[in-house]
Specification:
It is built from 7 helices and 17 strands. Helix 6 runs parallel beside helix 7 (about 250-260). The protein is globular. It is α/β, with parallel strands linked by helices. The chain has a single domain (about 1-275), classed as Ribonuclease Z/Hydroxyacylglutathione hydrolase-like (Metallo-beta-lactamase, Chain A). The strands form 4 sheets. A 7-stranded mixed β-sheet has the order 8-5-4-3-2-1-17. The chain has a 6-stranded mixed β-sheet with strand order 9-10-13-14-15-16, with helices on one face. The chain has a two-stranded antiparallel sheet with strand order 6-7.
Length: about 280
C-alpha cells in the first residue's frame, strides 16, 4: 500500500502547489487508483513533479459531486485513455452551500461543460450501492446514516421541477482497500459522517479491522461536543494511521493529533505514505 497526495489544502514542498480540494494517487493490490481530481488541472502538474504517470492509472473514483474533487476528471480522461471512472449516479446535482444561513450565489457541484461530460460519458460507471472492483477493493456507494445523524453543513439543489430541495449528499461514497493489516478507508469530505463511512466499509468486509482512515472529515463547522464525540470514536478504533485532510478543520486535526500522537499524520500535497511508515516522503 502506497498513496501520494497530489492535491491537498496545504503543502510543505516548494515545487508542489496546494489548492482547496483533494486528489490522492494510490498503489495497492496490484492496482493504480486515482481518488478524486482536485479543483483544477493542478493535480496533473503535481503528478508530473512527483513522477506519477496518470496514464498508467487503472481506474478512478470520485468521492462526491462537488467541484473541488471533480474538476480535474475531464483532464484525467484526456491523459489516461483507458481507466473507468466510478461516480455516484446522483453526483451531478447542482448543489448550493450556505454561509451564515444564506444560500451561496454560486453552486458548488460539478462544473464540467456539456461537451466535457459527453466526451467522457463512456468512461463513467455510475454507482449507487456497494461495488467490488476486485475482491479486495470496494466502493461503498451511498453511505447509510444513523437516524440521529445531523450533518455539519447544509446543501440544496433544484430538482427537475425547479423546486429547491435539500441535498442529502447520497452521492458521497468511500473507497475501501483490504490489506493484510486491515482496511484502508478513503473518504473525500464525509458529508454523511466519517463514522458512518467507516461503518459502511466494515459492512463491505465483515470481520475486518480498520487499519487506516484517510479522509476529509468536515468537522470544521461541527459543535465542540460533536467534534469530541467523533474524535473519541475514531480513537477507539485502535487505528494504525489516521490522516485528516482537506475539510477536516484545524481544531479537529489538533484534537486527533493530541489523542493519537504519531498515529495521526498531518499530510500535505507532495507527500507519499506507505502502510508501514508514519513519516511521508516528498517523492
Amino acid at each position: 500500500m502506497k498513496f501520494s497526495f497530489l492535491i491537498e489544502n496545504k503543502t510543505e514542498t516548494s515545487d508542489i502547489v496546494a489548492e482547496h480540494g483533494l486528489s490522492i494517487y494510490i498503489e495497492a493490490r496490484g492496482k493504480k487508483i486515482l481518488f478524486d481530481a482536485g479543483a483544477s488541472g493542478l493535480f496533473a502538474e503535481n503528478a508530473r513533479e512527483m513522477k506519477v504517470d496518470l496514464a498508467d492509472v487503472d481506474f478512478a473514483v470520485v468521492s462526491h459531486g462537488h467541484h473541488d474533487h471533480t474538476s480535474g476528471i475531464p483532464l484525467f480522461c484526456d491523459i489516461n485513455s483507458k481507466a473507468p471512472v466510478y461516480i455516484h449516479r446522483n453526483a451531478f446535482r447542482k448543489s448550493y452551500g450556505y454561509e451564515n444561513g444564506k444560500m451561496d450565489e454560486e453552486q458548488c457541484g460539478i462544473e464540467w461543460t456539456d461537451a466535457e461530460k459527453a466526451r467522457i460519458e463512456d468512461r463513467l460507471i455510475y454507482t449507487d450501492g456497494p461495488v467490488y472492483v476486485t475482491e479486495d477493493i470496494g466502493i461503498t456507494g451511498t453511505v447509510a446514516v444513523d437516524e440521529d445523524f445531523v450533518p455539519t453543513e447544509k446543501f440544496s439543489y433544484y430538482d427537475e421541477s425547479g423546486v429547491l430541495v435539500d441535498d442529502d449528499m447520497s452521492h458521497e461514497q468511500c473507497l475501501v482497500i483490504r490489506e493484510q493489516e486491515g482496511l484502508y478507508v478513503f473518504s473525500g469530505c464525509s458529508h454523511r459522517g466519517v463514522l458512518n463511512g467507516i461503518r459502511a466499509c466494515k459492512d463491505m468486509f465483515p470481520g475486518e479491522r480498520i487499519a487506516a482512515v484517510i479522509a476529509g472529515m468536515h468537522l470544521y463547522s461541527a459543535t465542540d461536543d460533536d467534534r469530541k464525540r467523533v474524535v473519541d470514536e475514531i480513537a477507539s478504533e485502535g487505528l494504525d494511521m489516521v490522516i485528516p485532510v482537506h475539510c477536516t478543520g484545524i481544531d479537529a486535526i489538533c484534537d486527533l493529533k493530541a489523542k493519537l500522537g504519531k498515529n495521526c499524520i498531518v499530510a500535505t500535497a507532495g507527500k507519499t505514505y506507505t502502510g508501514e511508515s508514519t513519516d511521508g516522503s516528498d517523492r
